[in-house]
Amino acid sequence: MSDGRCGFESCPLYCVTASKWEINMQSGSELRNKLKSIDHRGYPAYKELKGQYDFKEYVLSIDHVQGDPFAAPSRLSVLVKAAKADFPASFYDTHAKRITLQDHLTRLFAAQDRKSTRLNSSHNPAS
Predict the structure, then answer these.
(1) Are 51 and 77 in contact (CB under 8 A)?
(2) Contacts of 104 (CB under 8 A, 6+ apart)
(3) pLDDT score for 117
């Protein structure tokens, strides 16, 4: 569909076509440099991070940045090309299967994030 939706009825998710990956793409090292430059600055400075960053294996898309402590939270997405992910089409050939796969991947990502956060905090006593 022209608006980027996957075509499943009432699906709120947008599919990313290869051409959209190329628009204003920045590198992962550019994101690291931006993060260093805004360290210890206020919330508005973080708006500079909005965009897509290529980390070779995936693209990190910073879709919305929280404007202040009371605003809607930041929204990020991780994009992996279908050829790289290599999921069989039977895993996402219906709306229900697609949602199930997305849910599973989100849970795996969250579990890895929790594990990483615990490891980082155990190695950094100041946090």
Answers:
(1) no
(2) none
(3) 78
